[in-house]
């Protein structure tokens, strides 16, 4: 089974740059403490690399 990533928004996007807010929206994160799951793919890892200070990432299998 493929590895998945559980991503939780832990800091507010208020005051962040528009590109970072867009990245959060593309990841499906709209509200604080909202959690989404994504497949562990290079595209998703790249998006997460743009906003590591705003999210918590957990690997699940």
Give a description of the structure.
The chain is an alpha+beta fold. It has a single domain, classed as Ribosomal protein L30/L7 (Ribosomal Protein L30, Chain: A, 2-Layer Sandwich). Helices cover 31% and strands 28% of the residues. The protein contains two helices and three strands. The protein has helices at 18-27, 42-50; strands at residues 4-9, 35-39, 55-60. Strands 2-1-3 form a three-stranded antiparallel beta sheet, with no helix packed on it. Helix 1 (18-27) runs antiparallel to helix 2 (42-50). The longest helix has 10 residues, at 18-27. The mean pLDDT is 97.
Using brief descriptors, characterize the structure shown.
28% strand, 3 strands, single chain, Ribosomal Protein L30, Chain: A, three-stranded antiparallel β-sheet, 2 helices, alpha+beta, 61 residues
Per CATH, the superfamily is Ribosomal protein L30/L7
**Number of structural domains:** 1
Number of helices: 2
The overall pLDDT, averaged over residues, is 97
Regions with little confidence, pLDDT below 50 for 5+ residues: none
Helix % is: 25-40%
Distance between the termini: 7 Å
Fraction of residues in β-strands: 25-35%
Largest sheet, in brief, is: 3 strands, antiparallel
The total of beta strands comes to 3
The CATH class is identified as Alpha Beta
Rg from alpha-carbon coordinates: 11 Å
- Helix/strand/pairing category: alpha+beta
What coarse outline follows from CA principal-axis ratios?
globular
CATH topology: Ribosomal Protein L30, Chain: A
Break the fold down into its secondary structure elements and pairings.
Blueprint: E1 4-9, H1 18-27, E2 35-39, H2 42-50, E3 55-60
Antiparallel strand pairs: 1-2, 1-3
């Amino acid at each position: 089974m493929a590895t998945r990533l559980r991503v939780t928004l832990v800091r507010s996007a208020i005051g962040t740059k528009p590109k970072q807010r867009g990245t959060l929206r593309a990841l499906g994160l709209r509200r604080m403490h909202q959690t989404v799951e994504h497949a562990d793919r290079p595209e998703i890892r790249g998006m997460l690399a743009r906003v590591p200070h705003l999210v918590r990432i957990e690997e699940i299998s």
